[in-house]
Automatic annotation (TrEMBL):
PROSITE patterns reported in the protein's UniProt record: CARBAMOYLTRANSFERASE
GO BP: 'de novo' pyrimidine nucleobase biosynthetic process; 'de novo' UMP biosynthetic process; amino acid metabolic process
Reactions catalysed: carbamoyl phosphate + L-aspartate = N-carbamoyl-L-aspartate + phosphate + H(+)
InterPro entries, per database record: Asp/Orn_carbamoyltranf_P-bd, Asp/Orn_carbamoylTrfase, Asp/Orn_carbamoylTrfase_sf, Asp_carbamoyltransf, Asp_carbamoyltransf_Asp/Orn-bd
Binding positions (carbamoyl phosphate): 54-55, 104, 138, 141, 267-268
Catalytic activity, EC: 2.1.3.2
Name of this protein: Aspartate carbamoyltransferase
NCBIfam families linked: asp_carb_tr (TIGR00670), PRK00856.1 (NF002032)
The Aspartate/ornithine carbamoyltransferase carbamoyl-P binding domain, residue ranges: 2-150
Binding site for L-aspartate: 82, 171, 226
Length: 308
């Protein structure tokens, strides 16, 4: 693996190898072991053209636990604000001997463009990790979600998983669907209003439900999604109140899933819009476990890329 741009098309064995490698890093991620030297002498550049709390921070922690040098480019104070192009920015950072770029961008495809450019102009040893591009993909979130599900549920081949909410604008939903189908989950459901489901989503191998109560029946895993207001331009939407009534995860709706179902959310959460606090903070929630596992998963991805 040279770059990690999407989960789509990755062989099952590669996804499993990343999850197994992450498992071997849990002790380092959770600070039982301080650091490992796998990326010593390497420079990781975090390029976040969109805001982030979890992804940027856990990439930084993960890189430091692998002994890499980490540079966080502040886009607002960089020369991008004077009109410097994306690829000129990347060329200049590559000239500073960057070994790995972690890229988040509002434009779907931006990390692919950067990877192609680096391959053509800077040789074979600079790696790109997509940290979320537009509504397209967020592969490390998808992988940490798969890690979380494997941790709590063990066997992917026995599961019913529901992804609920704004699937249309969600890069996490796409990466999760690719991860779940690659790992052999027999039933992946998407639940939401038709205005927030992509046309033809069934072709991704999912069952579609517009009624949340029907869709949650007997599921093992519930992945809630945020209403991505920043990506909705004039979309026909219910009000937040109406949305919560129909698609908000409440204790009453959660009771329709299996009694040991886990509740996930990639964050940031809109409490009272897609999820009620008693569920987000309740005994079935693994939302903060997802964040912690993100460190080990990102260590795994960076160490695997860095070895190539
Ligand atoms: N899950 C996620 O991508 O969160 P951040 O936007 O805080 O990185």
């Amino acid at each position: 693996l040279k770059h990690l741009l999407t989960i789509e098309g990755l062989p099952r064995a590669t996804v499993q190898h990343i999850l197994d490698t992450a498992e071997s890093f849990v002790g380092v991620a959770e600070r039982e072991v301080k650091k490992v030297p796998l990326l010593r002498g390497k420079s990781v550049f975090n390029l976040f053209f969109e805001n982030s709390t979890r992804t940027r921070t856990t990439f930084e922690i993960a890189a430091k636990r692998l002994s890499a040098d980490v540079l966080n480019l502040n886009i607002n104070t960089s020369s991008a604000s004077k009109g410097e192009s994306l690829l000129d920015t990347v060329d200049n950072l590559a000239a500073m001997h960057a070994d790995m770029f972690v890229v988040r961008h509002a434009a779907s495809g931006a990390p692919f463009l950067i990877a192609e450019h680096l391959d053509r102009h800077h040789g074979p040893h600079v790696h790109v990790i997509n940290a979320g591009d537009g509504r397209h993909a967020h592969p490390t979130q998808g992988l940490l979600d798969m890690y979380t599900i494997r941790h709590f549920k063990k066997d992917f081949t026995q599961l019913r998983v529901a992804i609920v909410g704004d699937v249309l604008h969600s890069r996490v939903a796409r990466s999760d669907i690719h991860g779940l189908t690659t790992l052999g989950v027999p039933e992946v459901r998407v639940i939401g209003p038709l205005t927030l489901l992509p046309a033809g989503v069934e072709q991704m191998g999912v069952r579609v439900f517009t009624d949340m109560r029907e869709g949650l029946k007997d599921v093992d895993v519930i992945i809630m999604l945020r209403l991505q207001n920043e990506r909705m331009r004039g979309a026909l939407l219910p009000s937040a109140q109406e949305y919560f009534k129909q698609y908000g995860l409440t204790r009453e709706k959660l009771a329709l899933a299996k009694p040991d179902a886990i509740v996930m959310h990639p964050g940031p959460m809109n409490r009272g819009v897609e999820i009620e606090s008693q569920v987000a903070d309740g005994p079935q929630s693994v939302i903060l476990d997802q964040v912690t596992f993100g460190i080990a998963v990102r260590m795994a991805v960076m160490s695997i890329l860095g070895a190539n």
